[in-house]
């Protein structure tokens, strides 16, 4: 991440809007200088706020950063623009964070603009997470690695293992190791708990086992229980014996219980039989009692039967009475209707008289009004024929007027079109004049293009020939070297053979001397006295060694001759390739003999000096002069001038440049030709258009003349129609036929209204007469029906009294009393029937039981029940004893099964415990945890990187080292820091460092940490570091070295910012941000010294 620009508005001590353009920095290192409290650190706070919504150092809150110097309407925001130059996040990002100060509280909004210009779509929290993923560091990591705030230098040096571990965990991802630690510890605890549970369950199960003292197993069980942890199998053995003995006891008890239960079953059957007989005697007693009770109710049910009979008779009488009552009600209704009809008749008579009066009044005015309206109607109907003629002429006039207007518009349009066509024709003629010679120009460029293509072909052939020539020349160099090597090897082998041959000859005298005998003549000199015979030496050569040397010489000569042949063949190929280069060069540049002069320095070999390529043993090689001595081999060119590589490369570069130039020219020519073809096409189109325009103008002239003639005729026709319409209009009463028609329609409506009113009055009077007549008839009919109903009422009443007597009712009162019980007829009927059925049922039961109990007596069962109870108590006792035995047996069997499984599980758990206990001792040691062990590796790497810079700053005065674990005291350890002196070889605690030493060590550690994080992260790109204060405690020499390190660091594409009051730094760091503060707040000024 590399800053590009920072904008702060109403932020901290900056009242207005301040812009810091980091692209102005030269060399990557810059200084922020200013008085105390001027707002230097606020610059770095702004970056932290924009990225993380927090301040650097952690002791200031965002709500405190609203500038007291800001105007009321000035918004508080920070905009930070930064860049990633490589990696998956490559691009320029802009973060703008705005703080809103309201009565309800302080809120902030953040906007992230991505490299493609799009704004990230998400809420504030999502945007913050996206920013952190882009930066690759969280707030704490950024504060420790990128931005080292005031007072935080000592943290990197002075912290103990626990605190340093937390710092490193926030920087280096320890999630996986923390998870491993946690998983191992969890598994260790889990297995340990399982073993503990297993022990508890074993003891619990053994405690629940039953061991009887009767069997004599108690002492054995007690002894085995004491050995349960070492020999748990002993307990199982005792338990197995106890189970066998309980099994025998259970079976014996079961036999006794079965016999006792069989005796009880027999007794129960005898009791059951006796109970059945006694039950029947009891049923007979209950039946007799029930029969006697029913007989006591007989009188009540006899009375209900009498009431039931009277009620049924009353029901029959009520049917006759209902006819009489209905007629009586009808008479009352008819009398009421008769009175209502009489009242209606009176009202209808009054209404009829009123209608007659209205008709008389209407007829008086009807005759006069209707006559006037009919007269006016007839007049308008006659006049409507004239309106019809007028309207037809008016329609014709409108059509003719429209035609006249259209002709005028057409005339204007034709004139406009003619004018436009003339203008277009003039413009076309001007352009055609410009394009007059376009064919000649096109042909010129086509010819030039063809020439350039030929040139390109020639130069590409030359380029290829040069490439081929260079390859052949390279092969020739290799062949020459190979040949020279083989030649030298042959010379050496020949020399070796000659030397060996000389030593072999010398050795022959010693071989002959070895065979001499005293008194025998020498085969060489013939002497029989051998005073000084030749002796064998360590250099004596055998015949086999001589033959080997000769064979080696022959082999080397063969290889020399082969390499010579290859060399000569490559030379010929090179000469052919050179001739090709020369030929294509002359073609490309048309130099003729000049080409020879230009290229003569490029010839590799002089053919005239190399006709004889054979080699002889003692002759010099006529292609290369080879000088051999004991220390080196020197090969010098003798018969030819070597190909000048610089000239070849220069020629090739010139050819490539020429090809590029030709291709560029061809591209430009082709574009020009394409443009000229387009212009030619345009010229043809314009010539065609010009001819079409001339024809169109001629046609327009004819159309304009025809239209003028038609326009004149139409004007005369319209004037004539207008005069006729004016004469006709004087004879009409209204302005238009529509008005006249409306008036005629109005008169017709008035006549219709009068006629309609007359009809309505006649119809209403006729309707009133009919209604009166109908109502009068209804009244008469009502009177007749009343008279008939009254006669019928008398007859129906007599019928009612007659039936009343027939049903034996003394009077209407006795009838009404029985009428009350009509609703209970069904109930009484059912009750009487149920009573009769119950009496019959009980009587039959008594008879049946008497037959069944004939000859039987009641039996006393109390003795048998007492005997049964005693037997059941005994059986229950035996069952309880057996149940206890079965329970003990079940318990012991269950304990045996569970203990067996637990012991099997215990064995597996012990194996797991051995492994996990060992891992846990490593991962969660009280002295050094697994995380600490991994962080220790990072710590050592950071220290290694830090010492490279610290050695420069301190001139190897002191270095840092991670303290040996063996040297640490009790408690968590592994990340303690010591100071090592290369001079004295002694080690001391880092807390002994002075203020200046602490700053140097802290700076070196911060830079080392930055290097490690960048090297170990594929995503995180740290191109920036900010350092707030700390240089004041350094000597001039150390400060110079620290600045040099920072300059070197910044020079390698990083940006390093330093806040300091030290005046000497202003001279050492050329790029400076000067912060000054006045009554309007803080302001920034850039200063660049060089």
Keywords summarizing the entry:
single chain; 1090 residues; alpha/beta; six-stranded mixed β-sheet; 21 helices; 16 strands; flat
The span between the termini is 26 Å
Q: Main sheet: which strands, in order across?
A: 7-13-14-3-15-16
Helical fraction equals 55-70%
Q: Give a quick account of the main beta sheet: strands, pairing sense, barrel closure.
A: 6 strands, mixed
Spatial extent as radius of gyration = 69 Å
Strand-pairing-aware structural class? alpha/beta
> Kindly state the mean pLDDT as a whole number?
79
Instruction: Tell me the number of strands.
Output: 16
Shape: flat
The number of helices is: 21
What does this protein look like?
The chain has helices at residues 40-52, 124-135, 139-145, 153-158, 161-171, 175-208, 218-226, 232-296, 298-434, 438-514, 543-589, 593-599, 645-729, 737-806, 812-819, 825-852, 862-923, 930-954, 995-1016, 1036-1051, 1063-1068; strands spanning 2-11, 14-21, 29-34, 76-84, 91-102, 105-113, 147-148, 624-628, 633-637, 959-962, 977-980, 987-989, 1024-1028, 1055-1059, 1071-1078, 1081-1088. The protein is of the alpha/beta class and 1090 residues long. Strands 7-13-14-3-15-16 form a six-stranded mixed β-sheet, sandwiched between helices. A five-stranded antiparallel β-sheet has the order 2-1-4-5-6, covered by helices on one side. Strands 10-11-12 form a three-stranded antiparallel β-sheet. 21% of the residues are buried. The model is unreliable at 591-645 (pLDDT under 50).
